[in-house]
Structure formats: C-alpha cells, structure tokens
Amino acid sequence: MAFDAIFLRALVRELEGELVGSRIEKIHQITRDQIIFHLRGDKRLLINGGSNAPRLQLTCAVRDNPAQPPMFCMLLRKHLTGGRITAVTQPESERVALLQIDSRDELGVLSQRTLVLEAMGRAANLILLDGDGRIIECLRRVDFEMSEKRQVLPGLFYHLPPTPEKRPLTEPDEAVLFDMVRAIAPDTQLDKWLLDTFLGISPLIAREVVFRALGETDARADENSAKPLFDALCDLRRRILENDFEPTLLLRGDTPAEYTFMPVTQYGASLVQRRESGFSQMLDAFYETRERLERNRQRGQELTRAAATARDRTARKLAMQEREYAATQERETLRIKGDIITANLYRMKRGESSLTAQNFYDESGADITVALDPLLTPQQNAARYYKQYNKAKTAERVLREQMARAAADLEYLESVLHELSAAETEQDFADIRAELLTSGYLRRDAKAKREQKRPSRPREFRSTAGLRILVGRNNAQNDMLTTRTAQKSDLWFHTQKIHGSHVILETGGASADEQSILEAANLAAFFSRAGQGSGVPVDYTPVRYVKKPAGARPGMVVYETYRTVYVTPDEGLVKRLFVK
C-alpha cells in the first residue's frame, strides 16, 4: 500500500477542509492502537497509531467500544474532550501529521494541544504535546535502551524523527532534476535509485514512475532512459505541487488489493482500478473487511478454539455411537444362538468350546457353529447370549437418544462457529462467550473480571418499501427475535438446512410486498454459511408456524409450513439497506 508522504499530503489536504473548526465531543480507544474522535456534526475521525496500517481518516464504519477505556484514552479525554481542531498539517515530505487542538483545562483556561501521528510502519506512534511542545504522553514510549538517537518520553521536548539523507522531489528545480537523472550510473535499477534519492516515495510509486517512463517496473539505467524518466518524474512533481491527486483503489476481483493517490498502470488487466470519491472513503473500503477479519481472529481465537474442540469431540463421540448402534442391529443373531443352545441342551456337555447344530431359523436348514465358553454350563452359555441380546436391544434405544442429542449438539456447535466467523463487535463476542458458558462448553473463571453487561441489539435494515428487517447476531439473539420480539404475523426467514441468522421481516399485520420478501431472503442468505454462494435456498414463513422444542439448544427451532425462494447474496444490497 502506498501510504507514503505524498499520499499523506493528499489526505491531510482533504481532511483540513473537513476537520478544521470541528469540536471533539467524545473519544474512544477501540483497540490498542486505534482512537476514534467523535466530532460535532456526526463525524468520526479514526487515528491508527500502530505498526499495522498507521493512518488517520474520517470513517463511516461502526466500531464497538470496550467497556473499560485504556489509560491513554482517559488521558486524551482529559486534555482534548470539548476541544476544537484548529489546524491539520504535515511537515514537508514526512509521514507525520499534526492536529492542533484548542481546549480548556479543569480551570477553564484555554490551552493548545498537539496530537502527532507518526505513520512510519514499525516506528508508528501517537504523541500528545502541550503548548510548549513537551510530550504529555504517547502510545508507545521509547527510552534510551530502545533508541540512542531519539527518545519519546513524557516531559521531553518533541522532535521530528531523524530525516534520512534524501531530498523531497519538489525541492530541486527541473534543471537540477534533469542533471540528477542524467548522472545515474549505467545499469542502476531505477526504482531503487528513486527510493534511495527522494524522500517520501513508496515502492509502489517508484515502480509506477519507472513503468510509465520505460514500460517495465524493473528497468535499469542506460543511454536512452534519462529523458523518459525525467518526464515521468516531472509529471509526479507537478501532481504534488498542484495537489492534483486522485484517490484510486485497485481491486483483485471484488477484493481491494492496493490504494494510491494517482492512477496505476503497472498491473495491466490483473487489477481493476476504481476512482473513489475521497481518500477517507477509499481507506474505509480498503481496511474495513481486513481489519474486521483481523479483530475477529484475535478476539475470537479462544472462543473458536473452545467451540472447535467441543465440535470435534462431539463428532468423534457421534461416530463411535453410530458404530455401536450398527452393532446392535446384529442382535437377532444373539437370540438365535441362545435358542439353538437351548434346543440342544440334551446333547451338550460342560467344557465344550463350540456347538454345531441345525439352524432351524434358516429355511435351507444349514448347520451353524455357535461359540461357547468352556467354563460355563450349557444353560449358562444360553443365558449369556440372551443377556447380550437384551443388552443390545436396550442399547439400541439408548444410543438412538444419545445420537439424536449428539447430532443436535454438533449442529449447535457448527452454528456457534458460524457466529464467531460473522461476529463484528466486542459485544458479539461477549454474547457468544455468555452463550458458551451457559451451555457448559466454557468454564467460568472465578478470578476473571465480570464483564459489563450491555444490551445487545440485532442488525437492523430497511427494505426498499420501508419495512423493518431484523437480523440476529447469535443464537441467543435468534431465540429472542423469533420467540419474543417478532409478532405472530411477521415473516421469519432462514437458509434451508444451512447455518445462519434468524431474519424477521416486520409486516405490521399486513401482507409484505415481493421486493421486501426477496430483500429479507437476501439478508438471510448473506448472514449464513452460504454468504459467498449463489442460488441459496431460503425458507420463509409467518412466525406463528415457527416453534422451539422444549430443551432445544439456543437458536434451534422447527417449522413445517413454509415457502422457499432462491437468492444470490448481494453485499451491495446489504450495505444499502443497513440502518446505521
């Protein structure tokens, strides 16, 4: 990704018009590295000070807030809540952005604060300065042992990171720039030369400049390369000086692969270019799915491991029960052997290891050999076979019940794993954790801090016709929607024999239009394991026909009267119908 100093320049220019004059109403630290400023006018400014994708942007994505704010968040709230952003700046060709904020302290005295984002990969940081430029606090402290050249600690004056021996592309005039290009040694790899010579250019842009000049990204210097490379550099220099930036998202299929501030030609037809309306909107589109999956992976790791372990254990138990059940189907042979021993007691003696006699249950009258325990009497051998027969008959009934429970448990655990893969917020994971604790698949840690209980709400959508559609986030919420929230006349949707969310289309007692039915079915398909499929079967029926069996696991229901529609999940439709 090309989040270089040039991209940051374009982004700061865009944010300057959006942020200057805005008042900070709330501050949340949604992850270890990400801060959200809620600004007056329903704007949300995201600042990522971590090594994984450091940046600042306006965001429309809704993110959940932790129940307990970290200390750095508390300090930002103390100094910045109620403050007004007065400037958004960037030191020349640096991957550093500064937010100037006027705020009042506890005594009401007006003071200036500066929040510094150093968006420099592994060295990324977020630093709060006072009016004199001293560090109040930072996201990551850097002491002398970590860096001899530059320490970042409370109380020290802030200094910009050391600048490498490079110069901004905008610094030399065109005559000097042409002399620099002509002086490149033959056979020098040109994209590497650009990275070593100019400040603030990313590898993607360096390769693009070379590609535009010479038609290949790994071209080397020769007697004919100077003029084309100079022309390409002049075009990039002009873009920077004139702030001629175009937010460009590169997609591989439907998946964002790269982003930059100008069209990119080096990938040819392998990536599709899409011009976005703004840089913040582009960053949202790029990072939303990626970060959600990463957050889910981290937060749901323990729960996924517990649910997967329980699922695998249940699957093994079910397989063993099925083998035992298959063995019980041979029990008639045990009874027949007991009968044959009983019929031949008159000619048997103790100590025999087998009996060969006519099988009078076989129409052909063939002989059968029955194994005997020589330590038992003939009567005891017959009784042993009858006992095994009765035991197998009882086992068949018991195993049938156990297999039904194990199959239901297996289906339930599969649904939990689907919930975990679709979870989006901290509250989603808290709800699933509570569900697993209640179900006995997780042990409650007596020493663990009790989580703050907050009401969990289902996803809410509006159909094109204006009907409200509710989508459950987990099994417990599915139960709540179907058995308590929904009216008997509302329509209930679920993918046919596929794990997914319960979906309720509120009809208000009237007949739902076909478009709303198809949109609700699309949501049911999207929020299911078939979310990436096509032609997904979705059953729907009035809620009155949906029943929850006594003792059933959360989210498990039965229904008989229903209709089925086939839909292909459409993510664009889901986003359009979503109620924020």
Describe this structure in words.
The protein is 38% helix and 19% strand. With 580 residues, the chain is of the alpha+beta class. The chain has 4 domains: 5-138, ibrinogen binding protein from staphylococcus aureus fold (Roll), CATH 2.30.310.10; 167-295; 322-418, no CATH class; 459-577, no CATH class. The model has no long low-confidence stretch (mean pLDDT 90).
Which tags fit this structure?
single chain; 580 residues; alpha+beta; ibrinogen binding protein from staphylococcus aureus fold; 4 domains; 14 helices
Summarize the structure.
By secondary structure, the protein is an alpha+beta fold. It has helices at residues 5-19, 71-80, 174-182, 190-197, 203-214, 226-242, 279-299, 301-328, 331-343, 378-422, 426-439, 475-485, 514-526, 571-577; strands spanning 24-29, 34-39, 43-48, 55-58, 84-89, 96-104, 110-118, 125-129, 135-138, 167-168, 198-199, 248-252, 255-260, 272-275, 354-358, 367-371, 459-462, 468-471, 491-495, 503-505, 536-542, 563-567. The longest helix is centred in the C-terminal third of the chain and has 45 residues, at 378-422.
**CATH H-level name of the largest domain... which superfamily?**
ibrinogen binding protein from staphylococcus aureus domain
Q: Given the helix and strand composition, which structural class is it?
A: alpha+beta
Strand order of the largest sheet: 17-18-20-19-21-22
End-to-end separation: 29 Å
Number of strands: 22
Calculate Rg over CA atoms: 35 Å
Largest sheet: 6 strands, antiparallel
Poorly predicted regions: none
β-strand percent reads 15-25%
Number of DSSP helices? 14
Helical residue percent band: 25-40%
Number of structurally distinct domains: 4
- Give the CATH class of the largest domain: Mainly Beta
CATH topology of the largest domain: ibrinogen binding protein from staphylococcus aureus fold
Q: What is the global morphology? A: elongated
Q: What is the arithmetic mean of pLDDT? A: 90
- CATH-defined architecture of the largest domain: Roll
